[in-house]
UniProtKB/TrEMBL annotation:
Pfam families: CPSase_sm_chain, GATase. This is Carbamoyl phosphate synthase small chain. Gene3D superfamilies: 3.40.50.880, Carbamoyl-phosphate synthase small subunit, N-terminal domain. Small subunit of the glutamine-dependent carbamoyl phosphate synthetase (CPSase). CPSase catalyzes the formation of carbamoyl phosphate from the ammonia moiety of glutamine, carbonate, and phosphate donated by ATP, constituting the first step of 2 biosynthetic pathways, one leading to arginine and/or urea and the other to pyrimidine nucleotides. The small subunit (glutamine amidotransferase) binds and cleaves glutamine to supply the large subunit with the substrate ammonia. NCBIfam families: CPSaseIIsmall (TIGR01368), PRK12838.1 (NF009475). Residues 11-141 form the Carbamoyl-phosphate synthase small subunit N-terminal domain. It comes from Streptomyces violaceus. Residues 1-187 are annotated as: CPSase. L-glutamine binds at residues 55, 236, 238, 265, 268, 306, 308-309.
Length: 380
């Protein structure tokens, strides 16, 4: 629910965590109320890409960077057609955006899209709280919504949890569409959209791939109807433990031995397809500065992340799976979380992070080239 936007910066707002901790600040973006899972992102830049990443559906994003909105909002950087975060928390919003591409302020854009935010709170204290206690449900209330103060905590505690949430169908395309190859077309890829970011098909297209983006409900038959050289499973919101349909489609692809690549949710689905479990991390990885090691080369890359769940697979041994031998190919150097999987007997691999780099460093772009190599290998 949202109401007015004018003068929002003077409107009091309150952020209520499900464990009862409260932060008071001022409205930012739309005035009203919102609920979601409170998570923090450590990206210093790239707020447009963060806000429009469909994987953030039902999450309230706390920015650890203290000053947000400096470069305003442009029409080129969104990763999808709308803002998906359910709420936005910043300490000190830019008063005057300044960038040659800026079309409007971030405050205006949030308000125009009905996204309720809060500013002027101690985001460092909030982040430390989430780091100690874990990601949890939160509500942001401003304007009329603040008046029923006493009832706010109970309402936060009634909001849905992220664990057990099945959300891909709420964000993915309902109709298939094609992203044409840039230049000469070399391959066709079926990309199952579980909440895909716009840059991902683009990274494939610039390597000569024609990308057929399919709805999350696509069947194995739909995938093979485009006669693909490779199949891709995208990032997406929600709990991978609920993604039974994409897991069964992926098993169909693995059975046929078609080259397969997955990103983020796609990595969790590969984990499940191989028989591994997934679990919720205490507070997850979000930002554009996470160190990951590619264990196949030993190289360390700085990468973009947005995940709250992870695959539970043994780090230091090859696992026997229904689709042959598999190993953990990438690991996060901060906490040893599984960041990539690969099959040794079939052309399939995935990563838990974001090689499409929107926003983020481009260190992991080689993964798209690996996918191309698998498709070339299959043709040879
Ligand atoms: N970016 C993603 O694909 C996120 C995957 C999943 N929803 C998670 O939080 O771990």
């Amino acid at each position: 629910m949202t109401t007015s936007t004018r003068g929002a910066a003077r409107t009091p707002a309150v952020l209520v965590l499900e464990d009862g901790r409260i932060f008071r600040g001022r409205a930012y973006g739309a005035v009203g109320e919102t609920f979601g899972e409170a998570v923090f992102s450590t990206g210093m830049t790239g707020y447009q890409e963060t806000l429009t990443d469909p994987s953030y559906h039902r999450q309230v994003v706390v920015m650890t960077a203290p000053h947000v909105g400096n470069t305003g909002v442009n029409d080129e950087d969104p990763e999808s057609k709308r803002i998906w975060v359910s709420g936005y928390v910043v300490r000190d919003p830019a008063r005057v955006p300044s960038n040659w591409r800026s079309r409007r302020s971030l405050d205006e854009e949030l308000a125009a899209q009905g996204v309720v935010g809060i500013s002027g709170i101690d985001t460092r204290a909030l982040t430390r709280h989430l780091r100690e206690r874990g990601a949890m449900r939160v509500g942001i209330f401003s304007g009329e919504a603040v008046r029923e103060d006493g009832a706010l905590l109970a309402r936060v505690q009634e909001a849905p949890q992220m664990k057990g949430a099945n959300l891909s169908a709420e964000v993915a395309t309902t109709e298939p569409y094609v992203v044409p190859a840039v230049g000469e077309k070399k391959f066709t890829v079926a990309a199952v959209d579980l909440g895909i970011k716009g840059m991902t098909p683009h990274r494939m297209a610039e390597r000569g791939i024609e990308v057929h983006v399919l709805p999350a409900t696509a069947t194995v038959e739909d995938v093979y109807a485009v006669d693909p050289d490779g199949v891709f499973f995208s990032n997406g919101p929600g709990d991978p433990a609920t993604a039974d349909h994409p897991v069964s489609v992926m098993r169909g692809v693995l059975e046929r031995g078609t080259p397969l690549f997955g990103i983020c949710f796609g990595n969790q689905i590969l984990g499940r397809a191989l028989g591994f479990g997934t679990f919720k991390l205490k507070y997850g990885h979000r930002g554009i500065n996470q160190p990951v090691q590619d264990r196949t080369t030993g190289k360390v890359e700085v990468t973009a992340h947005n995940h709250g769940f992870a695959v539970d697979a043994p780090l230091d041994q090859v696992s026997e799976t229904p689709f042959g031998r598999a190993e953990v190919s990438h690991v996060c150097l901060n906490d040893n979380v599984v960041e990539g999987l690969r099959l040794l007997d079939r052309p399939a691999f995935s990563v838990q992070y974001h090689p499409e780099a929107a926003a983020g460093p481009h260190d992991a772009a080689y993964l798209f080239d690996r996918f191309v190599s698998l498709m070339e290998g299959q043709r040879a």
